[in-house]
Write a structure and sequence with these properties.
With 150 residues, the chain is mainly α. It has one domain. The chain contains five helices and no strands. It is extended.
């Protein structure tokens, strides 16, 4: 029983992840909301890119015969090139699908960035309008202070 108290308890992670953005904003501030949105954005990007890479790019790259046959016993940079675009045959029409898939991922990332930027900007403006002005947010410029003689 004494050793079980040293095992990390991960229940806090589930409770922290299930917070709504409004609860997170009121307890931790705008930075925490932006941080969670960045994590969610990254998950969306890598999920989409992983699916495109696994189901479109990898089969196209492996189907090419540009490089030598794959030998599982020799793992080097040469054998790993079989999984890259360098294995697609010269002049192959599959190259267009490969490039189109990469552009699709780029367009998806740009689309997500646009929407996340708009969402975070609207949250930021709403947060600033809802908070009361604090004295430390203002700067006062004082000019013409007389210099004492001597």
């Amino acid at each position: 029983s004494g050793l079980w108290r040293l095992v990390p308890y991960l229940g806090w992670f589930k409770r922290a992840w299930n917070l709504s953005e409004e609860e997170l904003l009121s307890t931790s501030g705008l930075d925490a909301v932006v941080f969670t949105r960045i994590i969610i954005f990254s998950f969306r990007v890598f999920s989409f890119a992983g699916i495109i890479g696994l189901f479109i790019l990898l089969p196209i790259n492996c189907a090419g015969t540009q490089l030598a046959a794959f030998d599982i016993t020799i793992i080097s940079s040469v054998t790993l090139d079989l999984f890259t675009i360098s294995n697609v045959n010269n002049g192959s029409k599959w190259l267009w699908i490969h490039c189109s898939a990469v552009y699709l991922v780029t367009a998806f990332v740009c689309f997500l960035l646009y929407h996340e930027y708009n969402y975070i900007c609207s949250k930021r403006i709403a947060y600033f309008y809802s908070s009361k002005p604090q004295p430390h947010q203002f700067t006062i410029l004082v000019r013409g202070i007389p210099v004492p003689p001597g």
